[in-house]
Specification:
This protein is mainly alpha-helical. The protein is built from 15 helices and no strands. The protein is globular. The relative contact order is 0.13.
């Protein structure tokens, strides 16, 4: 259970809120299936990363003739991962409701409740060829849930004074997650929803700017992020990479503004990847590492869209390089996670 340590005045200590998970005097969670009590909602980021990678390979099939079965296989794995994680978290809600409530109320972890909703918005892409009706249901539930969750979180932010140290990349998830609303619409065969697409694009991009500024300010002037949260830095790429795809899906064109969004995503990726590579060699694996998967997949998707709209040697090399990077990283994350679960390491990996 996440714990907020209070300072001398009784206010939550920001650094403690970010790093503390369970006080030493609390008993350890039992082993076996009861480890599900430690399952973090942020693990739904695995579904996001796998689905994004499936979309990237679908675009690679259209552009380069890559085997379609790769995209379809990854999509099926994403669907299976969603079912498994959702079932595990449902069990957690029953056997440890207090842990769920504490996670939701946490100033950082609470924002990650947007990840299952984003998963519902992305899964319709690989689901549509298998069951269009189910894909539509997923999208409707995800779009309505994401809008409500964004409203709830912004209301929470404006209702209480926030701590600067809580402004981590996870803050991007609740509102900027609306950028995922337009992505699956082209494959769902629904009536035109230009208004919904514009709403999601406008709100997502509008909030991306101040949130990015707040998070960058926190990274520059406050204490460094705890080790477990360092991989989440790559989330800063997502508003621009996903914003590019959402803009193209809404407008149907790769214009100057879309190119600008893509350029910012590439610059941030170039800044953050070396930092995360050094960090990866010195720190143990945690499931929070899945935070790098969707931004990498989204960058690969954006690069493939650019290569399709503006074919050329440079754009093709960039697209194939990002696709290879995203595939290798996500494959490693998936394998390492399965090994950890098989070893019964969920409590450790969730810290």
């Amino acid at each position: 259970m996440l714990q907020v340590v209070e300072n001398a005045q009784g206010a939550p200590a920001p650094e403690a809120a970010l790093t503390a998970h369970r006080s030493p005097e609390q008993p350890k969670l039992p082993g076996g299936w009861r480890q599900v009590e430690a399952l973090p909602v942020g693990l739904f980021a695995a579904v996001m990363g796998l689905t994004g990678l499936s979309v990237a390979w679908t675009l690679a099939h259209a552009r380069y003739g890559a085997p379609l079965w790769v995209a379809e296989g990854i999509g099926l794995v994403a669907c299976a991962a969603f079912v498994a994680i959702a079932a595990g978290y449902a069990v957690k809600a029953v056997v440890a409701p207090q842990a769920l409530r504490a996670e939701f109320r946490h100033p950082v972890a609470g924002n990650l409740f947007g990840t299952p909703l984003i998963s519902l918005l992305l899964l319709p892409v690989p689901l549509a060829p298998l069951s269009l009706a189910l894909a539509r249901v997923f999208w409707v539930v995800g779009a309505a849930g994401m809008t409500l969750f964004a409203w709830l979180i912004v209301t929470r932010w404006l209702s209480d004074r926030q701590q600067a140290a809580h402004a981590t990349p996870a803050w991007i998830v609740p509102v900027v997650g609306l950028l995922d609303v337009p992505l699956a619409l082209p494959v769902l065969g629904l009536p035109p929803m230009q208004g919904a697409m514009i709403f999601a694009l406008a709100v997502g991009l509008f909030f991306a700017m101040p949130l990015f500024t707040l998070i960058l300010s926190r990274l520059l002037f406050e204490a460094p992020l705890p080790a477990a949260l360092q991989p989440s830095l790559l989330i800063l790429v997502a508003p621009f990479a996903v914003g590019f795809s959402a803009y193209v899906a809404t407008t149907g064109t790769v214009d100057l503004f879309a190119e600008a969004l893509f350029a910012v995503a590439l610059f941030l990726l170039a800044v953050l990847l070396p930092k995360l590579a050094r960090f990866g060699r010195s720190c143990p694996f945690r499931v929070s590492w899945w935070g790098v998967s969707f931004p990498l997949a989204a960058a690969a998707v954006a690069a493939l869209r650019v290569a399709t709209a503006q074919p050329g040697l440079a754009t093709d090399i960039l697209a194939l390089s990002l696709l290879t990077l995203a595939t290798l990283v996500i494959a490693w994350l998936f394998g390492r996670t399965l090994i950890g679960l098989a070893r019964g390491e969920l409590r450790t990996l969730a810290q």
